[in-house]
Amino acid sequence: MENKKRQLLYALQMYDFYLYELQLYLDTHPTCPNGLRAFRKYKELRERTAAAYANLFGPISPLQSDCENVFDWVKGPWPWEKEAN
After folding, report:
1. What secondary structure does DSSP assign to 28-69, as a single string?
2. Span 14-54, pLDDT tens digits
């Protein structure tokens, strides 16, 4: 399970990098169909990966907290704490 956690975190970092680079590109080429297609693709992959991580290991951002009965974002360990890795 620990390996799956690392894989998902690595994938999130990778998708965040891709999306940031594509954002910079699209800032100067806002109508590029290939850039827009790539941005949509990696945005969807990132959203799926973040949802998979949250389902298995808990939220990685406050926006993923279900907030029904408790704001579970504050439950530990945090992703950057030793116990979480």
Report:
1. H-TT-HHHHHHHHHHHHHHHHHHHHHHHHH--SSGGG---SS
2. 999 999 999 999 999 999 999 999 999 999 999 999 999 98
